[in-house]
Each structure stands twice: as structure tokens, then as C-alpha cells.
Amino acid sequence: MNDFYKDIIIGTVFVIGLLGFISGEFIISSALFASAAIASNVKTNGKRSKTDQLSWD
Tell me, what's the pLDDT at 51? Predict the structure, then answer.
């Protein structure tokens, strides 16, 4: 799956979470916001090069 489709999925989950929050489904919307945040952070942290990571050498 390329980056465009991941962005679409993360955006869709965020919008569904926002709609759930507006409708009063706070537990479901919290879970959707959390999954969108985790997926977004995993995606951005996965793109780091090897030089950005700590080294014990």
C-alpha cells in the first residue's frame, strides 16, 4: 500500500472519529482518534533514515 492510500485511510478514520464525537459517541471517537494518531506517527517515524536514530557506537 503506498503513501496516498495510507493518507486516505488515516484521514477517513479521523473524519469518522470527528463525526462520532459530534454525535456523542465519545468512546468510539476516542478510539478512532487514537488509532489515527498512532497510524500517523508510525508512518512518519517509519520514514526516518538510519542516521537520525541513536547509536551506541
Answer: 60
**Separation of alpha carbons 55 and 57, rounded Å:** 6
pLDDT tens per residue, range 7-47 = 888 888 888 888 888 888 888 888 888 888 888 877 555 55
Cβ atoms of 29 and 17 closer than 8 Å: yes
> What's the rounded Cα separation, in Å, for the pair 47 and 4?
14
Provide the whole-model pTM: 0.63
What's the grid cell of residue 8? 486516505
Is 17 exposed, middle or buried, given 0-12, 13-18 or 19+ CB atoms closer than 10 A?
A: buried
3-class state of residue 20 by DSSP: helix
